[in-house]
Amino acid sequence: MVTVGVYGATGQVGTVMRTLVGERLPHARVRYFASSRSAGRLLDGVPVEDVAGADHSGVDVALFSMGAAASREYGQRVAAAGAIVVDNSSAWRMDPECPLVVPEVNAGELERIPKGIVANPNCTTVVCMPPLAVLHAEAGLRRVVGATYQAASGAGLAGTAELDEQVRAVGEKAAALAFDGTAVEYPAQRVFPGPLAFNVLPVAGSFEGDETTEELKFRNESRKILAIPDLAVSVTCVRVPVYTGHSLALNLTFERPLAPGRALDLLRSAAGVEVADLPTPLGAAGRDACIVGRVRADRSDPSGRSLAMFVSGDNLRKGAALNAVQIAEALIERGLVAA
């Protein structure tokens, strides 16, 4: 029997991980870990262990969602105790000895895990990797230009709480915003750089130079997952007043011509992808698939090598918890974890 540990079991993503482990790995033994504040609580009848003082031996797959600092502190310790760690933070993604995996795209990378740690990509990156991978295999992806529309939950429970507070405080006065944006007083912002309710913010993440961490993650992770080290990427990451679901408007340029009809045929047959006339974050919420639509030729490129499309996906599910559980499933299927 495989033992799966969920680290950060009381958090936003950890809660979804617990549900998915129960659904997709029903015969696994589970152990839950969190900080000392939550130690001793019962979740699904399982006691929560203090990650700092616990004996981690016996855990086969450790699903981490505790933030980068905790992953750096405990990831290698848990791996040394015998587990394969699947880490949801940014701590290990660009480490050359840690595969960065979206199972529908590059599960073969799991054959070599030198540090015992597999990295889960950023939620925005995950959402568009299955569709981009199948199109790249057909026509050779060379350039990505896009804008993201990232939900408040991408900033954690504090992000959703701040949006909810603003919606409740401003909701009845929202009509005034259409005429005078200064007419409504928002609660003080703690998470986002400006008011998010009834607004959009052209900043997601923190700044590193003139780009944000979210924009850098998207570029670097896309290159690593798709194995295109020189992929040209320009993206603007935008926070939108949505609770769950990240979306991306993408313009893609390929080495070879790719007609929209052919692209749609490929997307309809791709693992983890669903084609829809109207992909939206609401439509993606609670769903496993990445939802793709608005696929069309970029008429600014007469060569026929460019397409435009829109992608939506559940950032808490496929963008984080589901992808991690799918990695665990792939490890078991490949015999890399004893079943």
| Alpha-carbon Rg, integer | 20 Å
Mean of residue pLDDT? 94
- Give the fraction of residues assigned to helices: 25-40%
What name is given to the CATH topology of the largest domain? Dihydrodipicolinate Reductase, domain 2
Number of DSSP strands? 15
CATH superfamily of the largest domain, by name, is Dihydrodipicolinate Reductase, domain 2
CATH architecture of the largest domain: 2-Layer Sandwich
The domain count comes to 2
Task: Describe the model.
Helix content is 32%, strand content 23%. The protein folds into two domains: 3-121 and 321-333, NAD(P)-binding Rossmann-like Domain (Rossmann fold, 3-Layer(aba) Sandwich), CATH 3.40.50.720; 125-315, Dihydrodipicolinate Reductase, domain 2 (2-Layer Sandwich), CATH 3.30.360. The protein has ten helices and 15 strands. Helix 1 crosses helix 10 (317-333), helix 4 packs parallel to helix 7 (213-226) and helix 4 crosses helix 10 (317-333). The protein is α/β, with parallel strands linked by helices and 339 residues long. The mean pLDDT is 94. The radius of gyration is 20 Å and the shape is globular.
